[in-house]
Amino acid sequence: MQPDRLLSADDLAIGYASRSVGRDLNLELQAGEVFCLLGPNGCGKTTLFKTLLGLLPAQGGTVRLRGTDIAALSRAEIARTLAYVPQMQSSAFPFTAEEIVLMGRVIHRPAFASPSKEDRAIARHALERLGIGALAERDVTRLSGGQRQLVGIARALAQQAALIVMDEPTASLDFGNQARVLAEIRHLAAQGVGILLSTHDPDHAFALASRVALMKNGAIVAQGNVADVMQQERLEDIYNVPVCLANLPNGQKICAPDFAAMRPQR
Amino acid sequence: MITTRRKLLATAALSALPFPARAARDFVDSAGRRIQIPDRIQKVFGAGGPAAIAIYSLRPDVLAGWPRPPYPEERPYIAPVARDLPEVGLITGRGDTLNLENLLRAAPDLIIDFGSVRDTYVSLAERVQERSRISYALIDGRFESTPKALRMLGDLLDARARAEELAAYAENLFTRVDKLLATKPESQRPRVYLARGPNGLETGLKGSINTEIIERAGGQNVAVSNDGRRGIANISPEQLLLWDPNIVITWDRIFFANLAQKKDPLWQNIRAVREGRVYLAPTAPFGWIDRPPSLNRLIGLAWLAHVLHGADFPLDIADEARRFYRLFYQVDMSEAQLSNLLAWADGRPPALVRPR
Amino acid sequence: MTSVLSPAHRRARWLILLALCASSAIAGFALTVGAYPVTTEAIFRSLARLVSGQEPGDMQERVLMTIRAPRVLAGLLIGAALAASGAAYQTLFRNPLVSPDVLGVSAGAGLGAVFGIFLSLPIFFIQLFAFAGGLATVAVVALIATSIRGRDPVLVLVLGGVVVGALAGAAISLIKILADPYDQLPAITFWLLGSLSSIRQNDALAILPAVALGLVPLILLRWRIDVLSTGDEEARALGLPAGALRALVIACATLMTASVVALAGVIGWVGLVIPHIARMLVGPAFSRLLPMSLALGGGYLVLVDTLARSLARIETPIGILTAIVGAPFFIWLLWRGRNDAA
What we know:
The structure holds three protein chains of three kinds.
Chain A: E1 5-16, E2 19-30, E3 34-38, H1 45-52, E4 60-65, E5 68-69, H2 75-81, E6 82-85, H3 97-102, H4 117-129, H5 145-158, E7 163-166, H6 175-190, E8 194-199, H7 202-208, E9 211-216, E10 219-225, H8 226-229, H9 232-239, E11 243-247, E12 253-257
Parallel strand pairs in A: 3-8, 3-9, 6-7, 7-8
Antiparallel strand pairs in A: 1-2, 1-4, 4-5, 9-10, 11-12
Helix pairs in contact in A: 4-5, 5-6
Chain B: H1 2-16, E1 24-28, E2 34-38, E3 44-46, H2 49-58, H3 80-83, H4 100-106, E4 110-115, H5 119-132, E5 136-140, H6 146-156, H7 160-182, E6 191-195, E7 202-204, H8 212-216, E8 220-221, E9 232-234, H9 237-243, E10 247-250, H10 253-260, H11 265-268, H12 271-274, E11 278-280, H13 297-309, H14 317-329, H15 335-345
Parallel strand pairs in B: 3-4, 4-5, 6-8, 6-10, 10-11
Antiparallel strand pairs in B: 1-2, 7-9
Chain C: H1 7-32, H2 40-52, H3 59-92, H4 105-118, H5 123-147, H6 153-178, H7 184-193, H8 203-220, H9 222-228, H10 232-237, H11 242-264, H12 270-282, H13 286-310, H14 318-336
């Protein structure tokens, strides 16, 4: 058993008792790497993540966390290794950002405890790492979508897990907020925080990931380094549109639909 | 046999609807309504408990049924002809437990309500009468007008001689009590509390039909509302202490038994309890002081006046009960039945059995 | 970074303290109000007797010690318990508009009590039936919720509560029709409206263990209950066994509600409105919401009960008053929140 193999899926089948979403999924994540799951909407990314997190039972195959079947682990044991940033950060009640972030500390304290001084320091630090220390006392229900997403990431940081799982962290954010959230994720990745994220936008994979897996209709069609996997034909296949890959002057790689090659579909 | 005949009659009546051709006469009820009464009356429907008792007292043979079937302890005190009558429900306005179609199927010759003749009940009577084509008479059920109501019912039910007999009893009793009251100025009348409900903190306020017997028997109902309310109400223990009645009457056997065990410190502070003046009213076949408020209260009036005033209202309760039960309920009580009833009125009721 | 408490947090502490003082003042005031005239001096005399363990001397002291004080104490306890379980339910169901009877505990307790009245049982058994009925109803709802899988468990619970509550309501109506209209029907009606009028000396003590048993886990788990309010999936991802924790919180809140409903009948609105006000004052964190709800709930119920027993010689059922106060407040909340994105 390799010590650096953090999370793996072997011949995983995902979905619900009444509806299969995907099968024969194999993945392997090392500690500290940034891994991007790329695929169109509805291909099963969220279901896969929930299964990897143990929130949904596997319909076949196994998920292993540091070599142990996740089905045999308690929620607390899982949460010490995996932190989750769900797609929609919603709160029914006007908790402050700090209170939300502090919730990431709950497994590190005994069952009957309140947040300690140390927890508060960790929570503040997590907020500051993401540049939103000023929002600590603000009511999260009144924050913008991008700010809420950053609060969610801060909570995952405070959880001090080895890997942060982010389900489409940029979904439903506007252009500027998408960029700001991505920049913060890049910054974290540069500091050695392990991240597994999903996105439907190839540009985000180019911007963030060291490794990437392409997903289509519940199956992983390719995985490996970004440069090897993100080929024009593959992207055209999973999105079913002609695309153009290009390098920007600053060295950043981007992917755009090739409108010239597209004919209106009737 | 009888049921078969009734069924046949019912079928005949149904086929003849909506206007059964019957010889009829006019009658003016207590609300001043002019209604048509069939000549031959064979089946009469009571709109509620008070009416059923009134009909039963005059013509047990024509009563269609009871609002609820009599409990086993009540049955011996009901004449055999009426003991097994079916449960027929109530006509109360909203949420009737009576189905109009069942009423039509039973095809009574007449519906009688005995009690309030206020507008609500007038309109209810009109509505039911209009829809069922069965004449609906309202008789004023105030305790004070009992003799008049009896004569009216006698006229209505073709039982004038019997009605006269019962009315004479009521008038005689009222006269006896009136003589007593003439010697008792307001200040000398005992202060009475009617305890209802399992904890005794439910009562009937002064002016309600449920407690008018207290004033009639020469007591003062302590439960006077200061906001014009009447009817049944819940009161606080403090209020009860403040009222501090001389006499507590109840018909609730559980409450009475609890009081006898002297467990509750609240009640031990009440003068009536300290002085042992808590009285249990029998409820067989019907309540003596209420439950329901109908002719059954006449025996309760005699009993209560004696309870409140003792020697000033001399009463041989055994004799009075025997007379009243024979006259109104047409039962000749055996010695055992009579002594059971008297023991009950003396605070030793039969065990509570309520099988359903 | 150095201060442990944020300014908002410190402000909340003061507010909770203030609410406790206000509730105590209300309770003290309630001791002076009542049908039976009692002097302030008698209150202090009674207090002295209580401290020295003496029996009450005169009638005034007896009224205070056996009727009024037990009722005020029971009011504090009942209001606090209803508000606490309301706060727990609201946080748990992530909905500020649910009340402690969302899972049918009041309807079930009502059914139990009405059945007890119907059978002409003594009061103790009526209360026992109410208690058992409340617990049983929630157990049935929980059973339904656990047997329906693959749907949002919280939604299934709430809908199950609505359905079972409606069934219990129908059963109550059925018994009302069958009940003796002279003895039982008025008793049923009064019971369903709720009242503290028949509280006796040791009644508050009798339900105290059950209320404490429900309250202590809520206090201990205050932080985890916050996490639970983020929803099932997030709470599990944060490392909590959400299902088990939710079951525990429901059991605690139900235990508290069922015991107070058994004692005082169905008293609506307290468990809905008080946690709401508490949240507006100290925020949603359960470590502050719970004590604030307890303090406000106790004071509020004593205040309303004092009205109920002093408005007229005849008791106004407290359920009517809490509704008269609560319903307009609720409409005000809706009106106030109409343009609120949150």
